[in-house]
Request: fold
Amino acid sequence: MLYSTHRTMIWTIVLLFCGLLVLYLIASTRSRLKNEPPLDKGLIPWLGHALEFGKDAAKFLTRMKKKHGDIFTVRVAGFYVTVLMDPNSYDAVLQDTVSLDFSRYAQVLMQRIFSVRLPGYDPATQRTWMGKHFEREGLTHLNTMMYLNIYTLLSSPEILQNSQDWKKEGLFSFCYRLLFRAGYLTLFGKEHSNNSGEVTTVYREFRKFDNLLAKIARSTLKSGEKKTAGEVREQLWDLLSMQTAEESDSWQQSYRRFLQEEGADEETQRRAMLLQLWTTQCNAGPAAFWFLGFLLTNPDAMNAVMREITSFSLPAGTQQRLPLDKLQATPVFDSALSETLRLTAAATISREVLQDKTLYMADGREYRLRRGDRVCIFPFLSPQMDPEIHQDPEKFKYDRFLNADGTEKTDFYRRGRMLKYYTMPWGAGKNVCVGRHFAVSTIKQFVFMVLTCLDLELCDPNMPMPPVNASRYGFGMLQPDGDLDIRYRLKTQSPACWWSGASTESDYAL
Ligand code: HEM
Reply:
């Protein structure tokens, strides 16, 4: 008797659950309405295309573009995301700050990745504060500090020990390690005298965190990884809060004061440091890796860049310093850098739709966007890898952004229309990367110094570039899956040791 009552109860619960599930699926089923972009929900209820998206966003979105054209809506883990792939129509998203919002989703990610919620978070106030440091005089000061730190690192015994012997290392590890160190010392203060391994420890923990970042952002960590992520985060919060009075003028301390003024408590300030460490350090090292890697695997490009650098050498006997105007006029170098970023900068630009909106495309089409959905631009696929814009888009052509007369090429077309956005490594519009000038200057200083100071070679001259780690699409600069083995030693005769005489701030401003 008791047994049959028990069975009835279990069946009632199962039926109730199934009923609720069916009701939920019916309620959450969405169909395409008139004037809405093509809708692709995927086969899996709720999850939709989340798995394919997370595995390789570039491959998935290329498939969707082939199927639906340059605008479509996909379901990803319960959200509906409209993806726009026509660069001529990007301003309809980038310039709309009334119906489309940047900050809400940014806050969700901040909370999820860095466990931090900034009180009264206002991206505009933060941007204005950042601008003070990363533009004009603030930028010149940071460039000087960065220059000195890169120079000190490259001339340290760690690099130049027995300077005539070749040292072997992976290029990615070489670039990321050194630029992280230089960037950390520039923005987060000096290494403490009683703890000289501090930056090395911060870097080691940072790399562990960075390796898990995509999974943290997508909430797909396995249980062991979840534990590691939590521990590493704690460890980095602790390491970043070890400050001394002598560092009161550092960028980090200034950021702390900014947070205090914004009403952030001690714990929030402590946690926000990791957010800033990642924002400021995660892109330059990988960018320098791709740049040097493309040069090493493309001898034509390396020769052209070296010709430009050596043309700066001053006659023997004069001080070997590169004049400021020459530092700025490096068209070959700049084109090769733009080409590198075209191939490897892969951030997604996401906005939340705050109210129903009509999106007007450049070719006259109009689409309705629903409140609560997201709009997403993925510049890596278009314009950067779009074969309608760039011929052989997968190839590295160092002179793609050069005119025949050596000036910068800026005219690119899609379907007969000249493009405003033909490459977008820094995003665009109101939220364009505020650190872009600092990043370019850092990469330029580092690559110039490496190429003029060191003999740098591939261990195997036929080694191709490693493939990209496909799980990182959407998170800024791509990273390789594997590394490129290099060997280096101090040049016996440095042809253009232009930095040796620089001494004032303006000498270093790239
Ligand atoms: C190769 C290097 C870099 C690349 C490719 C890059 C790329 C980007 C992109 C695409 C965005 C826009 C995201 C969006 O619209 O949603 C962005 C924003 C931002 N970047 Fe960078 N970045 C780089 C280096 C840096 C550096 C070195 C710093 C600081 C030192 C920095 C600080 C920022 C900040 C603070 C924002 C947010 C801007 C805002 O909220 O309005 N970036 N970056």
Observations:
- The first helix runs from residue 2 to 28.
